[in-house]
Amino acid sequence: MSRTSINSSFLYIANKSSGGKAIGVRAARSHRALASTLRKERQVLLKTWQLPAWATNEPEMSLKDHAEFDAQLAQLLDRGVPLTEALEVASTVVKSTNEDRVLQLRSLVAQGTSFSDACSQVGSFDEVTCAVYKAAEKTGDLAGACAQLSKGAKRRLEVSGKAATLMIYPCIVLSIAFVAGLVMMTLVVPTIGESMASAGIKVPTFTKILVSAGTVLRENILILMGGLVLLIVVGFLWRSTLAKLATSLTRNMPFVRDVVLEQELTRFFSVMGSMTRSGIVLSDAISVSAGVIGHPKLNKDLQRLQQRLIEGGLFRTLIEQVSALPLATRKLLVAADQAGDLESAFDSLAKDHAQNVDKKTARLMAMLEPLLIVILFMIVGTMILAIMLPMMNMTGSVL
Fold it and tell me: Whole-prediction pTM value?
């Protein structure tokens, strides 16, 4: 989606109400708008410096902010509150860094710009959201569209949270194992090995290898730490590429690929439900909604489905050919199309697949826990074994 940002970034110094000074970078339309925003946070602006365009770091609205924003709009518009006033209230439910963006929306709408066009201009509203807003403006049901978008965003937040937990838990355990292993290799194992050697205790070959490796690591600890920092920096700079690689790997891993597919289907049907309820043509809804799908085969099948719908094909016939969708899902969609109730079917499928994410995530976590324990034992236990072997040999020789 094209974006025309009307914000600039400012480096500022401000007095805090509690005393002292605050220094930071904030995006705002102008110096005056920045001062107004800081005043609401009980800060008094002292000095500002506008940063060049390349240094602009305007924060995007998170999915949580979008959910709260749409929920607030839906509630107010449904009760007859004018859109400009609803937007002013909605600016208070998002993070302070995004408050100015919502006020920009209000200003553009007050000047006669349509709500969907204003969202495109200020940025941070994706193609799906803008398409739903545009369709809702034509049907006159912007409140209903906002309610549907909020519901879909909250469902996607739940699914994303479970996916994050699934990825973070193994990373934390493995990081702890790595740090513990590194400490033992650089501090504990070499020290004990040297003590045994000086005491004339016979050290097994396995222990000698680990002691030598630990000694090398300890003597080159600065190089090791520099390498780790470099890896972190490279990982940060190439995070999008690494994320795509990780996603590609998880789509082909046993057990994990089922969870990934359920997440993709939850996002797809949530978006489809929002778009079709807003009156968007089915083929257009599929074309836009397929953009939230990262699964290659499913995305390709959906694009083919959309093309054949434009050519005059029947949805109930074409959906059977989307083999990437589970059979039960295809049969339900065929029945819903025959009954003329696809909108409810999309919502129902989004809910069902979200529940499947819960079940499969719990099942996968139950499998990962013992596997991680084994890995942790192999890393730490190997070093403990290297320490214990000489002691066991010494005890055996004494007896």
Answer: 0.62
